[in-house]
Fold:
Amino acid sequence: MRTKKGQALVEFVIILPIFIFMLLAVIDIGKIIYYQNALESEMSDVIDLYKNQKSYQDISQELSLNENALSLEIQNENNETITFYLKRKVTIVTPGLSFIFSNPYEITVKRSVFYG
Structure:
């Protein structure tokens, strides 16, 4: 008579890599969502500083863009609109998930401000 322990071990060995992949994927996607929200908050600060007549260098120093691995781009598209781009690269650690997301994955927050 065969024991059930051997069968359970084989099933566990088959399921374990799938479980680990799913766990790492959830962590990576959660990290992307976290940094997306953090960039949205930083973007509000950037726009507030820009409205207070701060220069690009002042904004960069105040928010520590280089230390936080952020990049800021400001474009004056026409006489009524300024577009802000705030970017951050996030490293994906889950093997195989880089087929869905590029590695490093770049998160970009874009906001246009109208002024008159």
User: Anything to note?
Assistant: The first strand starts at residue 70 and ends at 76. Residues 4-51 form the longest helix (48 residues). The helical segments are 4-51, 56-63.
